[in-house]
Amino acid sequence: MTVKVGIPRALLFYYYFPMWNGFFKALGVEVILSRNTTKGILDKGVRQSVDDACLPVKLFFGHVLDLKDRVDYLFIPRMVSVERKEYICPKFLGLPDMIRHNVPDLPPIIDITVNMSRREKNLYKAFAEAGKLFTANPLAVRKAFRAGLEEQERFHRLNHLGYLPHETIEQMSRGLVNQNYSPAQTGDMTIALVGHGYNIYDSYISMDLIEKLRNMGVRIVTPDNLTGTIIEEKSDELPKKMFWTLGKRMIGSAFHYMRSDRIDGIIHVASFGCGPDSFTGEIIERHLRRRRNIPFLNLTIDEHTGEAGIITRLEAYVDMIRWRRAAL
Amino acid sequence: MFGYLGIDVGSVSTNIVLIDEDEKVCDSLYIRTQGQPIKAVQKGLEYIRGRISDEIVIGGVGTTGSGRHLASIIVGADSVKNEITSHAVAASNLVPGVQTVLEIGGQDSKIIILRNGVVADFAMNTVCAAGTGSFLDQQAARLNIPIEEFGDIALKAGNPVRIAGRCSVFAESDMIHKQQMGHNLPDILAGLCDALVRNYLNNIGKGKEILEPVIFQGGVAANIGIKKAFEKTLGVEVIIPEHYDVMGAVGAAILARDAVRKTGTTSFKGFGVAEEMFEATSFECKDCPNLCEVIQIKAGGQIMARWNDKCGKWSNAIGEKKKIS
To answer: Which residues of B touch A272 (CB under 8 A)?
Structure first.
């Protein structure tokens, strides 16, 4: 029987799943994902987690609970840093510990530490450690690591073509990895949705933001559609380096999109209680007002499921863009 | 002559207006919703029917506010629009040239920036409802003064006290504390007005360019204390339009007129709906772990509408039926 490794469908899943999946698959390990977020999963997570965590972290707890009884291992890497001199939010750093100490009856957790702030080679070291659990052959681990990187590159390539990460993951799971055309999006305006992947692509906690906008005739682009080079270049405009990688992605992409003629508006999605989100929104709004007069909307998502508030804001926002255009 | 109805179903009040072809407000109503939006709409229609002149034929109906979908099912609306758009439409039609709209309602507050008659920017309170009408209502009730007198009492203040306005929970404990220290009522109420305005401008008005003419609308505009606090803080004159408390409904009526001009017909069901028995129930769908709380509206034993299901199974089932019949 093959060994089963569970990966929660939350948080960095939306950034690194292809890498993890490619790595484990190459080692002959079966990867089990938690189910799509439902009210049940969120409720369980909220009940089990520490109460001052942000909503996405609470949701992660729910996904762990959904998985824990049907896998042999849980894969919860300790993501400290993925780029030189930059860091991921401290809550991600302590994630394996938070889970271990708050959730009873867990299978063993694979909590390799990914810390590339000083040396990029540390990434391989981390995966090699995980690989040792499944094979004694260092060559097989090396091969699996490369397979993971390849999958991750395909993922980025498809995202840069215009697919959104959750769509890309879905496509890759169906084996469609080699197309080289952009997805067809219909609509009469394009809005940049700037937010953390785990907030905007999870259709339950985002209250189906992307589909709602698409149904209103809006084409969506996100930070994930941009290459790392663009993000890097644009975020460098800040007087001081932004050392939160995820926040930097939001700022860099917003700076890029606010210059593009193809973009009609920027929506910033923040989770309530997120420190970096509270200032990325602020920085983006200030720069936007200085540079170009395109509409900006700040949406805060939290546990409330009343959709009326979100719909009102989105409708008014889209109306406003159409009005402004008609008045020109 | 044609008249157009606008219905704004808000959290605290339900407003109905009747306008004529030229956007003149012929009649307006302000009813407390009291948690029963259907009853409030029916009661409002009943009143309007009693007061409407025989010459006027209803040419269209528009709904807005957080209960807009519910109201649209009941009356058969021609346009269903969010309250931001409705308020902006009303403001730019009734006060030509307006550049800033401050709006404080029962549970939300917003700012709308207009330039050349078009919405250029807006903001709405996020997860917090501090400093909206319901909070003032609550505090007035606690102090045992009618909300109508709130503003006038606040104007008598000689030396407004400083009250924390960030959060309504803290504001309340701050107010109680100040009372126990012996500050007089007018000073406390004026302090509350200042705190509310400060919070509004920090929170919602953040980064917005507030240019004259500035108008202040929504139920809270009845409170002269808040108006004065706005003028003091902004240093500009704040205009309160004649129909400040029903502007959302006016906007809805204007939008309905525009919608009917395009389609040529109205789907208004007539004033008879005031007597019809509507029954709103909800149930938890257990078919998947989402456990959606589905709401359904029944009239005469027949289901008229269902919503709030994520997958659309229940709401679509109704739509199909409509198409067949």
So the answer is: 126-127
User: Which residue type is seen at B214?
Assistant: V
CA-CA distance, A93 to B213, in Å (whole number)?
51
Instruction: Write the pLDDT tens digit of every residue in B271-293.
Output: 877 788 888 888 888 887 777 88
Distance from the A149 Cα atom to the nearest Cα atom in chain B, whole angstroms: 35
CB–CB contact B290 A38 (8 Å): yes
- Return the biggest CA–CA distance within chain A: 68
CA distance B180 to chain A (A): 33
CB-based contact, B228 to chain A, within 8 Å: no
The interface predicted TM-score of the complex, written ipTM, equals 0.72
In this structure, the number of other CB atoms found within 10 A of the CB of residue A20 comes to 22
Q: Is A183 part of any domain?
A: no
Instruction: List chain B residues with CB under 8 Å of A278.
Output: none
B24: CB partners within 8 A, 6+ apart = none
Which positions of chain A have pLDDT values less than 50?
A: none
For A252, the domain range is 189-327
Say whether pLDDT at B106 is over 80: no
Which homologous superfamily is B2-89+248-273 in? ATPase, nucleotide binding domain (3.30.420.40)
What residues does B279 pair with on adjacent strands? Answer: B298
Q: Based on the fold, state whether residues A153 and A113 are members of the same structural domain.
A: yes
Q: Looking at the complex, does the CB of residue B291 fall below 8 Å from at least one CB of chain A? A: yes
| Cβ partners under 8 Å of residue A269, min gap 6 | A193, A194, A195, A196, A199, A200, A206, A209, A299, A301
Q: Does any CB of chain A come closer than 8 Å to the CB of residue B117? A: yes
Note whether B97 contacts A: Cβ–Cβ < 8 A: no
CB contact (8 A) between residue B289 and residue A38: yes
pLDDT, one tens digit per residue, over A309-320 is 788 888 888 988
CA distance A177 to chain B (A): 29
Per residue in B98-112, is it b (16+ CB within 10 Å) or e — as a string? bbbbbbbbbebbbbb
B96-240: CATH topology is Nucleotidyltransferase; domain 5 (3.30.420)
